[in-house]
Design goal:
Layout lengths: L3 E6 L6 H10 L3 E7 L3 H10 L4 E3 L2 H5 L6 E4 L3 H13 L3 E5 L6 H14 L3 E4 L6 H11 L6 E9 L3 H4 L3 H7 L2 H4 L3 H17 L4 E7 L11 E7 L4 E7 L10 E6 L2 E5 L5 E4 L7 E3 L11 H10 L11 H20 L3 E2 H4 L1
Parallel strand pairs: 1-2, 1-4, 2-3, 4-5, 5-6, 7-10
Antiparallel strand pairs: 7-11, 8-9, 8-15, 9-10, 11-12, 12-13, 13-14
Helix pairs in contact: 4-5, 5-12, 10-12
Length: 342
C-alpha cells in the first residue's frame, strides 16, 4: 500500500503533539515535511520525525509537489489561510476545531475544499472519546426520543493554568488570532453539538464575563443559548473554573429519556422507569474512529466513506455562524437572528 504523504502547517497549537503521536504509530502514512515560524517548535518536531523536512516558511511547504494531505494546527486566524491554500493545492486537510476564527474564513475553507474535491475534516477532540461517540449515536438514532435540550460545559482554570505552552497562549489570548476568548475556544463545543443534534440555530442569546482573569482583553466566561422552535442548546465556557467538577459533561434531554456523558467514560441514561439513571456499556470505537489521524487516513483511502458527523465541515461552518451571532448577542444584549447577524 502506497503511504499517504503528510505535511504539517503550523505547530503552535498544542493539540498537534497528541495527533503526531498517533501519526507516528499509524500504518501507511508518512510525515514528509512540517512548517512553522518558531525555531523551537521545528526543533521539537524534527526530533520526533528526523526524516522529515523542516520549513521556516509556510510557502516553502505549500510549494512542494510530493504531499497528499496536511494537518493544520495554527492559530484559528492563520489556519483559515493555510487551509484554503492547502485545499487549493488539492491536498486533503485535517484542521483543528473550531475550524476558523470567523464565519467568512469558514465559508472560504468550505468553498475551497468543495471546489477542489478534497476531504476537509474538522478535529473536535471529543469525537474520538468512546463515551461521546456512544452518546451521539444513541441520540441521533432516537434512543431518547425527540431532543429538546442539548447542553455542554467546557471549563478549566485557564490555558496557562492548565499548562498550555506559551506558543499556544500567545495567540489563544489574542482575540484577533483566536477569534475571541473563552467563548470561541470553549463555547464552540456546545455550538457544534447543538448544530449536530438540533440543526442550525435560528436565534441565539449570549452573556459574557470579562475581568475575572486579570490582564485578559477578551471574555473569560460565556453562556450561549441557542433557540429553536421546540428545543434549546446551551454552551457554557469558562477559563476561570477551579477544579474539574462539571467540566466536559454533555447532557442530552429527549422526550423519552436523558443521556449524560462524562469525560471519565461513564454514560448514564435516565427515563421514567429509571429516574436515577443507569450506566450504559460504552463499546470500544471502531479502528477508523479511534483518533483523528485514524479517521483522516480512512477518509482519504475511502473517498465514499462518511466522516464522523461532528467533524463534518458543514457542521463546523454552521457552528461558526452560531458563534459569530453569539458575539453580536453578547455585545448588544439582545436576541440575534443567526442568519441575519452571523
Amino acid at each position: 500500500m502506497k503511504p499517504i504523504r503528510i505535511g504539517i502547517l503550523g505547530l503552535h497549537h498544542d493539540h498537534i503533539w497528541g495527533n503526531l503521536k498517533d501519526l507516528s504509530a499509524a500504518e501507511g502514512a508518512q510525515l514528509v515535511a512540517f512548517a512553522d515560524h518558531e525555531p523551537a517548535l521545528r526543533e521539537k518536531c524534527g526530533a520526533l520525525f528526523p526524516g522529515a523536512s523542516a520549513c521556516a516558511d509556510y510557502d516553502d511547504l505549500l510549494a512542494r509537489d510530493d504531499l497528499d494531505a496536511v494537518y493544520v494546527f495554527a492559530s484559528n486566524r492563520l489556519g483559515e489561510e493555510l487551509t484554503v491554500a492547502a485545499c487549493d493545492r488539492g491536498w486533503h486537510v485535517l484542521v483543528e476545531k473550531p475550524m476558523a476564527s470567523t464565519l467568512e474564513g469558514a465559508d472560504r475553507m468550505l468553498a475551497s475544499a468543495s471546489a477542489s474535491g478534497v476531504r476537509l475534516l474538522v478535529n473536535w477532540p471529543i469525537a474520538w472519546q468512546p463515551v461521546y461517540q456512544q452518546a451521539l449515536q444513541l441520540a441521533l438514532e432516537g434512543d431518547i426520543g425527540d431532543l429538546w435540550q442539548v447542553k455542554y460545559r467546557a471549563a478549566h482554570a485557564g490555558p496557562r493554568e492548565l499548562g498550555c505552552s506559551e506558543h499556544f497562549c500567545d495567540w489563544l489570548y489574542d482575540a484577533a488570532w483566536n477569534g475571541g476568548g473563552a467563548l470561541m475556544d470553549y463555547g464552540c463545543y456546545g455550538a457544534a453539538l447543538s448544530r449536530l443534534l438540533l440543526g442550525p440555530a435560528p436565534a441565539v442569546t449570549a452573556v459574557t464575563l470579562q475581568g475575572l482573569k486579570p490582564g485578559l482583553e477578551s471574555e473569560d466566561n460565556a453562556i450561549l443559548l441557542f433557540q429553536y422552535p421546540r428545543a434549546l442548546g446551551i454552551a457554557e465556557a469558562s477559563w476561570t473554573q477551579s477544579g474539574d467538577l462539571t467540566s466536559y459533561v454533555a447532557a442530552l434531554y429527549g422526550s423519552r429519556g436523558t443521556l449524560v456523558a462524562e469525560p471519565g467514560g461513564r454514560l448514564l441514561r435516565a427515563d421514567e422507569e429509571h429516574s436515577e439513571g443507569v450506566e450504559l456499556d460504552v463499546p470500544a470505537p471502531a479502528p477508523h474512529l479511534a483518533s483523528a489521524t485514524a479517521h483522516f487516513l480512512h477518509l482519504i483511502r475511502h473517498p465514499e466513506a462518511a466522516c464522523h458527523p461532528l467533524c463534518d465541515p458543514v457542521v463546523g461552518r454552521d457552528a461558526q455562524q452560531m458563534l459569530s451571532a453569539a458575539y453580536v448577542a453578547a455585545r448588544e444584549g439582545r436576541r440575534v437572528n443567526v442568519k441575519e447577524e452571523g
